[in-house]
Hints:
Blueprint: H1 5-15, E1 37-39, E2 42-45, E3 50-52, H2 63-74, H3 78-99, H4 107-110, H5 116-126
Antiparallel strand pairs: 1-2, 2-3
Helix pairs in contact: 1-5, 2-5, 3-5
The chain binds zinc ion (ZN).
Amino acid sequence: MKVGRELDALVAEEGIGLPKVEWNKETPCPYCGSEMHYLVARAWCSVCSEWRYGPHKEYSEDIAPAWEVHKVACGWIFSQRREYLHALQQVVSGRLSLESPHKLVAWPDVLVFLEPVDICLAVLVVKGIDIDAVDVPLRP
Ligand SMILES: [Zn+2]
């Protein structure tokens, strides 16, 4: 599974418990709820002035919707929230050790290095999803 729509759907439905949404000509814009103009596999939202490629927000690629996921996870009960923060640190430190000399010093510093996909993967870990099946490209 790649970063993108399939992962976004997994995060929405399994990660933060949103209802399953079919992607069809009736599906509204996930950001503003407006009716969209469909063209084959994508749709144009004239309110947001953007193309949409699926019924869910781009959690794995855009930090703004990813941050909504983070806020949901931060609202979980203590044990789950703690597990989420631990998973987030694991995901981030795994990525950083592969690509850069950065070191994680303390939790607040982790936020500096967060990628949208890190939040997605950490949430899925807490929900018991095997994230090794998710193919995450390393940044240059
Ligand atoms: Zn919109």
